[in-house]
């Protein structure tokens, strides 16, 4: 495989995808939609849970009523159980909540006694704290992995080449969320941290093989060493990712809304992580080796 010889192609593909996502953010902001489609846990808002008591269609039945009464063009509506619905909108006052409930009550002949299960306001102050905690967790995890991998391989370039692709994976997931206007919520945070842990695993496998092959490699044949190591591990990496993707994809299509919200970023992240482990991490290590001007050595 000529992974290293074509490294500029792999880098260019990633840069284009990441830039598309980053550019979509200010464009969304200028259109008045916000840089990302933050769920109420992040942006603040009102959450209503109602027992409809019968079958209903979110897109054709519930959403038009919510949009008309609340004025929120992008409400987040999901099922709760078989006959319940959870409606998340921008903050609305008690009068608007009553109007919304009365409209659904009339539409579905609700009894008005036990159908309104829950009404909550989510403060944006809490959401800011959640965002900071998530960023702190990601930063601390990245630093600890950088230290551990550097210590394990006795080379800071291995550590940096392993951690930078993790940032790549997170940015790719953000690009999908930015362009697709997928709601960003608590599940997104959990999925991002899961992706970081999953992606680093494949990268370590490749780096381990590089370290093993260095002992028998020809001096100066760094490009051949990396290509050979990737070829020896690529089947394992792809097989592992495909089997994981099959399971998560089934969960996405058959699971409830909360499962889907967790599964979607995992699907995107696993694909991005597999790509970065094969086409980004090792080429980055190659670039760091050349940049540092340290002669290629067979010793680990």
Automatic annotation (TrEMBL):
Chief place of localization: membrane
Annotated compartments: Cell membrane
Record domain Protein export membrane protein SecD/SecF C-terminal: where: 115-289
Superkingdom per UniProt: Bacteria
One GO term (biological process): protein targeting
SUPFAM superfamilies recorded: Multidrug efflux transporter AcrB transmembrane domain (SSF82866)
Mode of membrane association: Multi-pass membrane protein
GO CC annotations, alphabetized: plasma membrane
Keyword Protein transport part of the UniProt annotation: yes
Keyword Cell membrane applies: yes
Entry GO MF terms: protein-transporting ATPase activity
Role, per record: Part of the Sec protein translocase complex. Interacts with the SecYEG preprotein conducting channel. SecDF uses the proton motive force (PMF) to complete protein translocation after the ATP-dependent function of SecA.
Similarity comment text for this entry: Belongs to the SecD/SecF family. SecF subfamily.
Name this protein carries in UniProt: Protein-export membrane protein SecF
Organism: Defluviitalea raffinosedens
């Amino acid at each position: 495989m000529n992974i290293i010889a074509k490294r500029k192609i792999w880098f260019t593909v990633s840069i284009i995808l990441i830039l598309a996502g980053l550019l979509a953010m200010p464009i969304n902001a200028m259109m008045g939609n916000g840089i990302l489609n933050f769920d109420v846990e992040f942006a603040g808002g009102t959450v209503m849970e109602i027992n409809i008591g019968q079958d209903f269609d979110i897109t054709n039945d519930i959403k038009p009523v919510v949009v008309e009464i609340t004025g929120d063009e992008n409400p987040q509506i999901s099922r709760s159980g078989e006959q319940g619905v959870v409606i998340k909108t921008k903050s609305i006052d008690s009068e608007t909540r009553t109007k919304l409930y009365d409209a659904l009550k009339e539409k579905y002949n609700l009894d008005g006694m036990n159908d309104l299960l829950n009404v909550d306001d989510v403060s944006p102050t809490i959401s800011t704290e959640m965002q900071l905690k998530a960023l702190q967790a990601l930063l601390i995890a990245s630093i600890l992995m950088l230290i551990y991998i550097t210590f394990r391989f006795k080379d800071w370039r291995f550590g940096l080449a392993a951690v930078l692709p993790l940032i790549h994976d997170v940015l790719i997931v953000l690009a999908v969320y930015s362009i697709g206007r997928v709601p960003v919520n608590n599940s997104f945070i959990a999925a991002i941290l899961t992706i970081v842990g999953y992606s680093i695993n494949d990268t370590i496998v490749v780096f381990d093989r590089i370290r093993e092959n260095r002992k028998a490699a020809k001096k100066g044949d760094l490009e051949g060493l990396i290509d050979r190591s990737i070829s020896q591990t690529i089947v394992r990496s792809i097989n592992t990712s495909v089997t994981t993707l099959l399971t998560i994809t089934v969960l996405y299509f058959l699971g409830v809304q909360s499962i889907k919200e967790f599964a979607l970023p995992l699907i995107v992240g696993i694909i991005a992580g597999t790509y970065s482990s094969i086409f980004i991490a090792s080429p980055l290590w190659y670039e760091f080796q050349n940049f540092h001007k340290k002669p290629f050595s067979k010793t680990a």
